[in-house]
Model the fold of this input.
Amino acid sequence: MSDTSINTRADTGEAGFGDYFALLKPRVMSLVVFTAAVGLLAAPGGVHPFVAFCSILFIAVGGGASGALNMWWDADIDRVMKRTQSRPIPSGKVTPDEAMAIGVALSGFAVVMLGLAANWVAAGLLAFTIFFYVVIYTMWLKRWTPQNIVIGGAAGAFPPMIGWAVVTGGISIESVLMFTLIFMWTPPHFWALCLFMKSDYKDAGVPMLHVTHGHRVTRNHILVYTILLAIIAVGMAFTGVGGPIYLVTSLVLNALFLAGAVAIWRRDETVAERDGYKREKAFFGLSLLYLFLHFGAILAEAALAPYGWGGW
Amino acid sequence: MSFRDDHELHKRRFGRNLGVALVLVGFIVIVFGLTVVKVTRGDYEPENAVVSN
Done:
């Protein structure tokens, strides 16, 4: 054994702080923070800024904890997929037991602290989100049905509802619509990624739609979900969180998104492979911008409302 | 195993300990801050409390 191999992190079992932090899926956490913050700021009424800050932090910690539990359960899949091989568990930096302990401890911590800082409706929603992501999605649906991402996407859609509940202490049509926006956005976003990352899921044996039903069906599904998403997204403009800024933003984005979905639907594998999945990659990139700008527009409406600009 | 390799291990361990320390300090600040906010806003006043002058 060489010196180099003796001193790899896997052999020493000494993970750095950053390795534990990576368990919390920081990039997913950033989306959770953003959408939860928009839900909180768009809600009628208000909370003390420090309570708002702490609530967002606890929601992020709860989201991160579910990410750690996901990595613990899915370590076998992560070892196979190229995209996830460098994660802390498959790379040997953190043991599965450590990841499980951190996930469980932080889940409990985040729920209790959110309940104490804000209210128990928000804490209950956070607890349900963690349960849904870890048990319903990760442990059950992901390896069982090609509709895994559709139902599992609900977990990522809860943060704006939790942010809303922090202020109002309840659930309303606006918060449900914000949930629905992310819920309907997740399948086309993820399936577009699957189209050009096909070999990874196939190798891991995860029954993603394109693995079980082929690319033609996946392309059809992307189009159908994008049409349904457009109806919901534009419809939101006429609710309490909408307004002219949101309406214009949503119309432009949905026109672009629909055009992208139609382009994907009209293509077949031969054409897509010839240009290196250019359209699919562009659609995936647009999907990130789509969600960010929709929630950005909701935030803009809420921010301008005190000056008589936001809302209808 | 050379001293250089051990040093890397200790550096990583120190970084981890420092990270945990900062998280704990952050937790203390959060609990203290939340307590101040809740108490000054009267969140823990009994609803039927009588204020006497």
About this structure: Chain A has 17 helices and no strands.
